[in-house]
Design a protein that fits this description.
8-stranded parallel barrel; alpha/beta; binds 2-phosphoglycolic acid; globular
Length: 251
């Protein structure tokens, strides 16, 4: 089954308005020929609308790095799916390991965010992945399975069309230490198998599973050649238009 690749850039807490506009324009300029793959930028909330404006005539999509489950209300420090859409966004990343680890977001909160994101029809990227300690204790599959089960609790089969899963081993994020293509493929195949058990084969076949964790121009081709790797969630290398452009044009 051929799934359309998705290359997503997570800008984390980087870029001023000016940096963001330049970077987005440079990336969009490298995406004129990308009809066979999707490209998504997830900049900070403060520049969502500027970035949306800059890429409006390109095939590049924009999304947020997190989202609340409510449309509006007393949720200091949060941003709603309606606000993301109003700013020109069409997607949200949920459950990134930095949200889980630094800001203590647990599986229940992540599930709430994910369902809120889907309710407002955003393309929703659920991030999962084990820590180094968990991998060394042979708990990778157990941890990833639990993150998927609880993250997707209450999600209907029809909503799965808007879900993307990103496997991001915590030990590979921002460390320059990528999972080998075999390690990544093994977990991706496991995730697809679990989704088949939870839903059905056609949903598992259509689900895009991205790899994240030190994806760079020099390792993207090997990763993308794996059967169950359908794209990449890129941090550091997404802040450099040349590197990200090369990753988008993986072979
Ligand atoms: P990295 O980040 O590419 O810098 O490792 C990936 C991520 O956190 O999504």
């Amino acid at each position: 089954m051929k799934r359309k690749a998705l290359i997503a850039g997570n800008w984390k807490m980087h870029t001023t308005v000016m940096d963001a506009c330049h970077l987005a324009a440079d990336i969009a300029g490298r995406c004129t020929d990308i009809s066979d793959r999707d490209v998504l930028l997830a900049p900070p909330f403060t520049v969502l609308s500027e970035v949306s404006h800059v890429i409006r005539e390109s095939p590049v999509m924009v999304g947020s790095q997190n989202v609340c489950w409510e449309e509006k209300g007393a949720f200091t420090g949060e941003i709603s799916p309606v606000m993301v859409k109003d700013a020109g966004g069409g997607a949200a990343i949920i459950g990134h390991s930095e949200r889980r680890q630094i800001f203590h977001e647990d599986d229940a909160l992540i599930n709430k965010r994910l369902r809120g994101s889907l309710k407002f029809d955003l393309l929703t990227i659920l991030c999962v992945g084990e820590t180094l300690e968990e991998r060394e204790e042979n708990k990778t599959f157990e941890v990833v399975e639990e993150q998927i089960r609880s993250g997707l609790a209450g999600v209907g089969a029809a909503q799965m069309a808007k879900v993307v899963i990103a496997y991001e081993p915590v030990w590979a994020i921002g460390t320059g230490k990528t999972a080998t293509k075999e390690q990544a493929q093994e977990v991706h195949a496991f995730i697809r198998n679990r989704i088949e058990t939870m839903f059905e084969k056609s949903i598992a076949d259509q689900l895009r599973i991205l790899y994240g964790g030190s994806v760079k121009p020099d390792n993207v081709d090997d990763l993308m050649a794996q059967q169950d790797i359908d794209g990449a969630l890129v941090g550091g290398a997404a802040l450099d238009a040349e590197s990200f452009g090369r990753i988008i044009h993986f072979r």
